[in-house]
Amino acid sequence: MTTVTRAHLAEHIYSQVGLSRHESADLLEGVLEKIAATLEEGHSVKLSGFGTFSVRQKGRRTGRNPKTGVEVPIMPRSVLVFRPSQILKNGVNEGSGTKRMKAGREA
């Protein structure tokens, strides 16, 4: 299993779109910066066929230190939530990526 990095994505843009490597990296950075800025403003980002990123507010609550059992207040905060699209869920559950990887090894 490998982790996809910004460098991997920029290289894929370079090979598929035909921009220079530098332009591909700039394009990727621009898209990621726009997504981050939109989320920082508290708005959702929906990528059709992929999923939706949104910011959710968690209220103040009381937690407990597991070692001592002492109650501790947990302050309100914002959390980032990702909800995958049905298409992405189906692809992951069917293991379509795994099938492609196995077919490539046998060839």
Automatic annotation (TrEMBL):
One of its GO terms (biological process) is DNA recombination. It comes from the Bacteria. CDD domains: IHF_A. One of its GO terms (molecular function) is DNA binding. SMART domains: BHL. Signal peptide: none annotated. Keywords: DNA recombination, DNA-binding, Transcription, Transcription regulation, Translation regulation. Pfam families: Bac_DNA_binding. One of its GO terms (cellular component) is cytosol. Belongs to the bacterial histone-like protein family. Heterodimer of an alpha and a beta chain. PANTHER family: DNA-BINDING PROTEIN HU, INTEGRATION HOST FACTOR SUBUNIT ALPHA. This protein is one of the two subunits of integration host factor, a specific DNA-binding protein that functions in genetic recombination as well as in transcriptional and translational control. This is Integration host factor subunit alpha.
